[in-house]
Amino acid sequence: MTTLADPGLVRVLGATVIGYVLVMFAIGWWTRSRVHDHEDFMVAGRRLPLHLAWATIVATWFGAGAMLTATDTVRAQGLIGAALDPIGAGLCLFLAGWLIARPLWEMKLLTLPDFYGRRFGVRTERLSAVLMIPTYFGWIAAQFVALAHLIEILFGLDVVFGIPLVAIVGMIYTLLGGMWSVTLTDAAQIAVVALGLVVLTLTVLAELGGGSSLSGLEILAARTPAPRLSIVPDELPAIVTWLGVVSVGALGNLPGQDLTQRIFSARSGRTAVWACHIAGVVYFGLGAFTLVLGLSADLVAPGLASKSTVAMLASLFLSPPLAVLFVLAVMSAVLSTIDSAILSPASVLAQNLLAPRWPSADLLRLNRWSVIAVTLVSVATAYVGESAYSLLESAYELGLVSLLVPLLMGIRTMVGAERAALASMIAGTVLWALHFALGWESFLSPWIDPLGLPLPMAASCALCAWAVYLVVARGENERHEHGLVA
Asked: Rounded distance, CA 328 to CA 481, Å?
């Protein structure tokens, strides 16, 4: 960024970044005294108060994608581009509070696959873990690469060396205190993210409004073409596609260990519910700032192309000290996602796949080794190349197509048992994988697209999985009625 071209400022930034990382390490070291067993490491002993519970949810949710990618999408498409983030992702937090937070917390679980095991059986637990873990590697790798690129721009360190550096930083303070360390660093990091985002937005609006942020907001509303201010498309096919994108964000993230691990960590069911709702409000609030930045970009910098809208605006309008704050905000957004993304699959790996094989192993040690293993695989994924981790990021839709139906049916109804859950998971996964392999972006596109109403692929696969669940569950009930099963 041009704002940071001055060598003196780069040195100041370097010292600030090092100090920031040391503070994160200090927090992680301090939390070691709170970790006595694997339950403390995985779910903070179920003792998180409300203010820490919602803060860690927001920090996990509001990562680099929400701060950077969503702004670029809105700049290109208008508010319709906010379907996935922040609309879908924000709705997910409210749905979590309404549908799953209290019943999951009351089950005293350590991982989400524990729920599938307790409700449907061991085979369902193992399959859910196998489906869940790989979806995190691409997400983590993308964060490693994003922060490594930022370090390269600022300090000239090659990405090849930046990736392991970022990985080591995130891994160390995750290892030190587990969920306690992640939660407390998340709380600090989301404060930095919010401050940086607010400062940048107010600065850009003041530039647009001739010194007044309020005037800038009025000018933004007046000068932005009406179609760009429309949140929902006008035509039916576009509306269906838009709803499909919203569903991926709102429903696909529900069966995620990163979200549910924070629900398990709350000190009560009521705290878990309110943490989700407050996090949803805060997330939409922060997301509103990214929308304003995306809409403002072409008004304050018309015709200026950039791969990153937020970085461009920061380089143009922030003073050097505020540019340093912005860099710390981006680092905070990425690091708060990295630690959560590492801990989540590591917990599932240790609890649901490794512990059953080595029942005499120390579970706390097993969790820490799993953190290291997840970090190493994610680093390897980052080195393989963008196509690999983009592929794995796309696999995040697996939550919607394979795990959502048995989660909601298992929590909200008594319909279905092991066979229904397994059949639903397998059907949704196979159908989604078939579409992905064939390059079909909509459901059964060779046959349905010519009808003029393309159906969203992931949401349609989830509906098929639900239908399979109900059919198999009915068969299970008939077998029970005829005494064919115990």
From this structure: 62
